[in-house]
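Notes, p. 3: input format for complexes.
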Amino acid sequence: MNESDLHPATRVAQAMGRIDQATRAVIAPIHVSTTFIRDPDNQYSSGFVYGRPDNATVREAEAVLAMLEAAPAGALLFGSGMAAAIAAFAVLNAGDHVLAPRIMYWALRHWMMTELPRRGIAVDFVAMDDPAAVATAVLPGRTRLIWVETPGNPLWTITDIAAIAGIAHAAGARLAVDATVASPYHLQPLALGADFVMHAATKILNGHSDVVAGVVAGARDDADWQRIVTARRLGGAILGPFEAFLLMRGMRTLFLRAAAQAANAAALAARLAAHDHVAHVLYPGLPDHPSHAIAAAQMRNGFGSMLSIRVRGGAAHAIATAAAVRVWHRATSLGGVESLIEHRASIEGEGTPCPDDLLRLSVGIEHVEDLYADLDRALRAASG
Ligand SMILES: *Cc1c(COP(=O)(O)O)cnc(C)c1O
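Output follows (384 residues plus pyridoxal-5'-phosphate):
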């Protein structure tokens, strides 16, 4: 049986079967050297020259990520999700136009609004879950990149990747998808027509809230991909070897963690939807989610571990609920094995499209009854 015929769950658990040849170690060593011996004939036959462009431990994790995304061009690891996302913008030139979603990761939206205009690049924010609106907003010949985030923070808006890919490609634009929330366990954007997929590997890919990392994977090794490769090689935003090792360790259990977290999230979404103190639950797995059918068609193995609730009684009740939890951790970020709760408008600040009665829940692997009971008690306490 060829290694490549195995299920991704098998391949990721075994880090693609890599065995250290020198020691026969099951776990690859961490390569820390920043420099490498040049051969007497003046070549670098190992392929390694210096630590900024490349690192063997980083390569191991990148090979696993390229496998998980089925990415022909491969995957590149960066020092954060933001560094990975920003690297994808290296495909643009002054005068280009970008379309991005209104509902998306706030720090990247902020970067696009402030930095793209300084580079002579125009950006418009559209309702990315409405392909007709995207088709109207696209500027054929000028729009060079459409950015999608699905499910999108923090309302879990679902974007039809295949539909937007069609619009992008007809206009001569590339499609990049931030698939952090879904992870490759639930979604493979390249298979649906995206040109690039990006993740904050900080989140569910690593899964243990102890690494900051980002990845971009590409559908084709072409001139655009080479601009991203060059941006990392020269820009120096490569992930460190210790972080790459930790990420690899985390990814071995991705399929187990993501399955358990999605099952917990689905159970909590259904129960919270019937809760007296909850006005609305936002979760793509609920049949009343406006894009449930698209989510069901383009995602697999469920709908992920992120949901939001809108608390009856407004912002004060939402903040009081977050203040009253004991099992959930009151913290930002997502995707770890421990459940987190956050009053999202507080961290996004002024101008956020996030309603102020919204609590964002990142569901972990704890026992679902403990998670529900804690939220139920906090919701009741908050509303007096
Ligand atoms: C966290 C996050 C990012 C940014 O990743 P960092 O590792 O924090 O830089 C980008 N997109 C989404 C959807 C995220 O959740």
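The mean pLDDT is 97.
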